[in-house]
Design a protein that fits this description.
About 20% of the residues lie in helices and about 25% in strands. It is of the alpha+beta class. The protein is extended, with a radius of gyration of 15 Å.
Length: about 70
């Protein structure tokens, strides 16, 4: 987003890696549509993630997509 500030993260490295505890949820648009049509919104899925500043893609285990109703 233009003008959006870069998030600042702080914490310890784990065995030399930047590891974060995160929550992964549905997009705000999907949430709106689910609520509009009377469907439940799945809760965010907690994960431990590796922050790799050199990565060009991100991936999640298949069970995350299932938990969010995206399969």
């Amino acid at each position: 987003l233009p003008g959006a500030a870069m998030p600042l993260l702080s914490g310890r490295l784990v065995a030399g890696w930047a590891v974060l505890d995160i929550l992964v949820g549905v997009s705000s648009r999907r949430r709106e549509l689910l609520l509009k049509h009377g469907f439940p919104v799945p809760p965010p899925v907690p994960l431990r993630a590796l922050l790799d500043t050199g990565a060009s893609v991100s991936g999640f285990p298949p069970q995350v997509f299932r938990a969010l109703g995206l399969t």
